């Protein structure tokens, strides 16, 4: 869940659910975040979960609830109740669920993979207000594998750190950020725990799905035209590598340069210099789309038009080496366009 202190009502409900039992389902609304709505917001979240639980025939305590959308508005509970009653339950409605939870997203985001005799799938939403810190982004993962609850939590926390917690669109953290992983064991077999036969394959599958969905969120950032993949090598620690990935990914100067296919590597060096990470100055290197542009504290001659052409595609890579250690991290963001300003300037008006 998000760690922002001013979080949505659903976060409190879901944390309580997780602490006392095992969740079996989730109900989600889009268009209204039910955040900063006081006690009424909490009551509405509980009521929404109760209605959904009644609809599918499970205890209310087993139903998670999530909201996404505009902050500071009460849920229209008459519409919520009517909507839950109208939902058609189906085993093949995953793509419909992925589309239904969208807000400013342009495309639904979902995928699935096989590992051994099992399947793991997931979907996510998110386009703006994306700078997750799971100690408005929502992700839901399901598997038919019989994975133990402790193993689920450990694997999900680690996978989120390698995926969702390394994306950013605009540097703002949503009060509703949530990632939920459900394992129903329907495919049978021995319980999967650390060290068991299918555990490593399960973790690899979970990583693959989480990274795919994280990249899809960054690629679909509000107003985005390009996905940016940022890799930091040679960091003194994992924390330094992750910090610099995020610092570069939130720099408006870097993001606008990528939007314009402008190989202005000085903007990247500027972020490295101001970031609170250890560096060996004479060992710092910067490459964009495979073209080395800066090395040993001096610029390298390059063909500007050639690099600009390379930056004109759908994906742009930025690779930095700090020369301070062996740690590394990779994360994702998107370019910053005039459309981002238009979308957010007119968001509620």
What is the topology?
Elements: H1 9-20, E1 25-32, H2 38-56, E2 63-70, H3 77-86, H4 94-100, E3 109-115, E4 118-125, E5 138-143, H5 149-161, E6 178-183, H6 199-219, E7 227-235, H7 238-249, H8 252-259, H9 266-274, E8 285-288, E9 291-295, E10 298-299, H10 304-310, E11 315-321, E12 327-334, H11 338-345
Parallel strand pairs: 1-2, 5-6, 7-11
Antiparallel strand pairs: 3-4, 4-5, 7-12, 8-9, 8-11, 9-10
Keywords summarizing the entry:
single chain, 2 domains, Ubiquitin-like (UB roll), 349 residues, 12 strands, four-stranded mixed beta sheet, alpha/beta, 11 helices
Please, how many helices?
A: 11
Please state the CA-atom Rg, rounded to the nearest Å: 21 Å
Please, what is the average pLDDT? 92
CATH superfamily of the largest domain: L-amino peptidase D-ALA esterase/amidase
Poorly predicted runs are none
Coarse shape: globular
Helical percentage: 25-40%
Q: Which architecture of the largest domain would the CATH scheme give at its second level?
A: 4-Layer Sandwich
Instruction: Characterize the biggest β-sheet.
Output: 6 strands, mixed
**CATH classification class of the largest domain:** Alpha Beta
**Strand order in space, largest sheet:** 10-9-8-11-7-12
Strand content: 15-25%
Number of E-state strands: 12
Structural class: alpha/beta
Number of separate structural domains: 2
User: What's the end-to-end separation, in Å?
Assistant: 29 Å
The third-level CATH topology of the largest domain is: L-amino peptidase D-ALA esterase/amidase
Order of helices and strands: HEHEHHEEEHEHEHHHEEEHEEH
């Amino acid at each position: 869940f998000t760690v922002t202190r001013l979080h949505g009502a659903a976060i409190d409900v879901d944390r309580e659910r997780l602490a006392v039992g095992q969740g079996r389902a989730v109900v989600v609304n889009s268009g209204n975040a039910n955040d900063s709505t006081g006690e009424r917001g909490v009551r509405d979240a509980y009521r929404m979960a109760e209605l959904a639980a009644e609809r599918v025939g499970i205890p209310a305590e087993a139903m998670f609830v999530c909201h996404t959308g505009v902050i500071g508005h009460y849920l229209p509970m008459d519409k919520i109740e009517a909507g839950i009653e109208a939902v058609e339950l189906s085993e093949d409605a995953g793509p419909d669920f992925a589309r239904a939870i969208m807000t400013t997203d342009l495309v639904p985001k979902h995928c699935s993979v096989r590992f051994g005799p099992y399947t793991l799938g997931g979907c996510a939403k998110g386009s703006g207000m994306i700078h997750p810190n799971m100690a408005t982004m929502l992700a839901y993962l399901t598997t038919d594998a019989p994975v133990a609850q402790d193993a689920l939590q450990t694997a999900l926390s680690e996978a989120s750190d390698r995926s969702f917690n390394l994306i950013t669109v605009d540097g703002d953290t949503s009060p509703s950020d949530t990632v939920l992983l459900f394992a129903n064991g329907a495919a049978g077999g021995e319980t999967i725990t650390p060290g068991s036969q299918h555990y490593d394959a399960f973790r690899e599958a979970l990583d693959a799905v989480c990274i795919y969905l994280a990249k899809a969120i960054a690629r679909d950032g509000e107003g985005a035209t390009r996905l940016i993949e940022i890799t930091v090598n040679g960091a003194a620690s994992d924390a330094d590598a992750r910090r610099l990935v995020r610092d570069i990914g939130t720099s408006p100067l870097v993001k606008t340069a990528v939007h314009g296919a402008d190989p202005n590597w000085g903007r990247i060096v500027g972020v490295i210099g101001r970031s609170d990470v250890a560096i060996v100055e004479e060992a710092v290197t910067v490459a964009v789309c495979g073209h080395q542009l800066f090395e040993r504290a001096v610029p390298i001659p390059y063909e500007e038009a050639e690099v600009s052409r390379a930056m004109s595609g759908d994906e742009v890579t930025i690779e930095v080496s700090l020369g301070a250690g062996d740690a590394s991290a990779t994360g994702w963001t998107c370019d910053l366009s005039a459309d981002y300003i238009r979308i957010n300037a007119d968001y509620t008006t």
